[in-house]
Amino acid sequence: MIDAHCDLLYQLWLHNYDVNFSDNLQFDLTKWRNSPVKIQAFSTFVPDNVPANQQFNVALKMVEIFYEKIIYPNPDIIPIQSKSDIENLEENQLGAILTLEGCHPIGNDINKLIRLIDEGVRIVGLTWNNSNAVADSITSHNNKGVSRFGEDVIQLLNEEMIWTDVSHLSVQGFYDVIEQADHVIASHSNAAHICPHPRNLTDHQIKSIIDRDGLIGVTFVPEFTKEADIVTIPDLIRHIDYFIEMGASDQLCFGSDFDGITNTIVGLENVLGFHRIKSYLTEHYSKSIVEKITRQNFINKFPRIK
Fold this sequence. Notes:
Layout: E1 2-3, H1 8-15, H2 29-33, E2 39-44, H3 52-71, E3 77-79, H4 83-87, E4 94-101, H5 110-118, E5 121-125, H6 148-160, E6 163-165, H7 171-180, E7 184-186, H8 203-211, E8 215-218, H9 222-225, H10 233-245, E9 252-254, H11 274-284, H12 287-301
Parallel strand pairs: 1-2, 2-4, 3-4, 4-5, 5-6, 6-7, 7-8, 8-9
Helix pairs in contact: 1-3, 5-6
Protein name: Dipeptidase
GO molecular function, one term: metallodipeptidase activity
GO biological process, one term: proteolysis
């Protein structure tokens, strides 16, 4: 299985937990190795309370944590920077992808984004919940779209064959990306028809992603899944059902958001819950659909070939 979003790097930067095992983490290396997840995307997320002049250094620190705590000490964990890296993974190896959640750490300096891409970032979220020089976020009252600088960012991502991530992006920004980006992903968003949270995708947005042959990472955030105090795996499966009804079977993957959430779906308290997800999928869908959602869609659409 492949998971397109988790915030382990943020937790390791903030608390210096033991990456090998910690009860405080929803994702650690021991849980990962005991889960069915073969490839994991690790988000570089800099909280917006970090002073602007320090944000890029914090982002680089998280990149350093990625390599020094996850990659270098663990020869069975391979950094994934291209589709060929995925295809060359051996049976006993795991893959790790570096991503960026929000472009606020780069300010208005595209060279900082180039540096992060050179470090291995392969999915770039234009915003988190805070607006920045690239675009407005979904929480903005202005609902402005992608800025002139943001257009330059998207052009760079197109040239570098990097995914442009629309999760957290304003509605206008979403459609700007749909128009401008070659490789579109909503790394962790669910269906607004099932749960009308602003972070979820409307029917029109889902159709737009289908038309652009993009990806949608079904997320385990409880408040994006159901308006209830207790949320269960069948509640999450309803979103998958709906996406498939909308014709998005070739667009679906997973974006758990583990370690970026406090509350969890019952049975999905940590990465080991992917065992339960896999069982539910096997019971509800054909083998070909399960293969698409759990891994093949992500691999097929990975932008950079080599």
